[in-house]
From TrEMBL:
Belongs to the DsbB family. BdbC subfamily. SUPFAM superfamilies: DsbB-like. Pfam families: DsbB. It comes from Alicyclobacillus cellulosilyticus. GO terms for molecular function: protein-disulfide reductase activity. It is found in: Membrane. This is Disulfide bond formation protein DsbB. The keyword Membrane applies. Gene3D superfamilies: DsbB-like (1.20.1550.10). Keywords: Chaperone, Disulfide bond, Electron transport, Membrane, Oxidoreductase, Redox-active center, Transmembrane, Transmembrane helix, Transport. Residues 1-18 have a biased composition (Polar residues).
Amino acid sequence: MKRQAAPSQANATGSPSENGVHPAHPRAACRTWLYLAWVTSLAATLGSLFLSLVLGAVPCTLCWYQRICMFPLPVMLGIAVYHDDAGVTRYALPLALGGAAIALTQWLEQLIPGLGRVIPCAPQTPCTSDPLHLFGFIRVPLLSLLAFVIIAGCLDRVRRTERLRPRASRPSA
């Protein structure tokens, strides 16, 4: 009698494993998630530069901290996409999670005015000011938070997909 494959392993029909990745194509899945994270980080970086250089918005203290987390990501992720290197998650994921925490803090500070006393910002550029206010609730920190969450989610998928790849097919460091 033939043993059936466990649900997390590839089966004859090619259906996805329990984490949603087709086991027969983990390399393509890794590259796709890395590419999506790179495009998101590039769009967020260019958007941040547009707001400050073209529209003249002066970044506050928390915006600078978010930039510190975001600006290295397009370079790191671009190199990782080019070399198909899933090992970048070790370095990029902490930046994305740290940036998301800072963006969440700033967004909550804008929604709840009492938090402004807890997180001091420079009086000339308060963290509650926002050059972009769309539809009454979309602000720059929310867009930043969304970008960081998308990047972190993509990098988490890369990390999970990389576990499915056999050691021999992984790029060497």
